[in-house]
């Protein structure tokens, strides 16, 4: 009798976990999905150890929408996005599958939309032959090799008025990707860049990232819901490493 009772409880628990897992899969594929920042390419907007939610429905759905981590559900090929209400805009931060880098998930900022001409001269971004307004606003320190390295911080304004923060470790014109282009963004593609301009592999590197197809975009970054300086499994360090000031901050 006791064995039968244990089997019944185990079966009920299994059903409950199956429901929870099913709900997680549905929400992650169709609504919002959690995403962890693994690198410093989007500093200072996003820091290593930030956890954020990604809006999966704003741009509609493609095969890469039904992707959790590096696993994509084996569905028939979707050639155009389904149920989309809007397209990515310059300035938005998006998550996408980089088919040129082992299909890894990347997070970058949209700088160019279809038809735009993008060029960098001495580190300044030109969109359709007009330099983006760039103004120094202070400094930002990053821990690199167990020591803090000071970067200069700037505001950068896109042609649509969207303003965001970027950082540079070296002076304008002295970094390896400060003089590249011009690039003309093809139809159905987008030009992405990281806010940490001297430490970002992005669309400036054609052989590694290049133009990003619309169908590779998984969704738009919404807000940070958790942030920690330590790894998720270092539970004992959590109370001393959590960045409470970053909890529930919108991503711009």
Walk me through what this model shows.
This protein is mainly beta and 252 residues long. It has a single domain (31-250), classed as Ribbon (Umud Fragment, subunit A). It is built from two helices and 17 strands. It has helices spanning 2-30, 238-241, and strands at 32-36, 50-55, 67-68, 71-72, 93-98, 104-112, 117-121, 124-127, 130-131, 133-144, 147-157, 163-168, 180-184, 189-193, 212-213, 217-227, 249-250. Strands 1, 2, 5, 6, 14, 15, 16 and 17 form an eight-stranded antiparallel beta sheet that branches. It has a four-stranded antiparallel beta sheet with strand order 9-8-7-13, with no helix packed on it. Strands 10-11-12 form a three-stranded antiparallel beta sheet, with no helix packed on it. A hairpin with a 2-residue loop joins strand 7 (117-121) and strand 8 (124-127). The radius of gyration is 21 Å and the shape is globular. The protein starts with a helix and ends with a strand. The mean pLDDT is 86.
Offer a concise description of the structure:
The chain has two helices and 17 strands.
User: From N to C, what is the helix and strand string?
Assistant: HEEEEEEEEEEEEEEEEHE
Low-confidence stretches: none
**What structural class do you assign from the helix and strand content?**
mainly beta
What is the CATH third-level topology name?
A: Umud Fragment, subunit A
Count of DSSP strands: 17
How would you sum up the major sheet?
8 strands, antiparallel
CATH architectural designation: Ribbon
Distance between the termini: 60 Å
- What count of helical segments does DSSP give? 2
User: In CATH, what is the class?
Assistant: Mainly Beta
Strand residue content: 35-45%
Mean pLDDT: 86
Q: Overall 3D geometry?
A: globular
């Amino acid at each position: 009798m006791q064995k039968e009772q244990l089997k019944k409880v185990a079966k009920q628990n299994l059903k409950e976990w199956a429901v929870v897992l099913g709900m997680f899969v549905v929400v992650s594929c169709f609504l919002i999905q959690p995403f962890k920042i693994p690198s410093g390419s989007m500093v200072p907007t996003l820091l290593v150890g930030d956890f954020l939610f990604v809006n999966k429905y704003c741009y509609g759905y493609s095969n890469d929408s039904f992707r959790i981590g590096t696993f994509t559900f084996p569905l028939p090929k979707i050639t155009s996005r389904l149920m989309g209400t809007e397209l990515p805009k310059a300035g938005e931060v998006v998550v996408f599958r980089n088919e040129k880098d082992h299909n890894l998930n990347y997070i970058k900022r949209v700088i160019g939309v279809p038809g735009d001409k993008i060029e960098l001269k001495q580190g300044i971004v030109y969109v359709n032959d007009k330099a983006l307004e760039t103004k120094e606003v202070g400094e930002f320190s990053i821990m690199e090799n167990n020591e803090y390295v000071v970067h200069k911080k700037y505001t950068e304004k896109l042609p649509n008025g969207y303003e965001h923060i970027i950082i540079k470790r070296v002076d304008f014109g002295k970094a390896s990707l400060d003089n590249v282009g011009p690039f003309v963004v093809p139809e159905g593609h987008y030009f992405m860049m990281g806010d940490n301009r001297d430490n970002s592999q992005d669309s400036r590197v054609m052989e590694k990232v290049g133009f990003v197809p619309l169908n590779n975009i998984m969704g738009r970054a919404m807000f940070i819901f958790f942030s920690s300086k330590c790894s998720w499994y270092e539970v004992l360090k959590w109370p001393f490493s959590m960045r409470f000031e970053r909890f529930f901050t919108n991503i711009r």
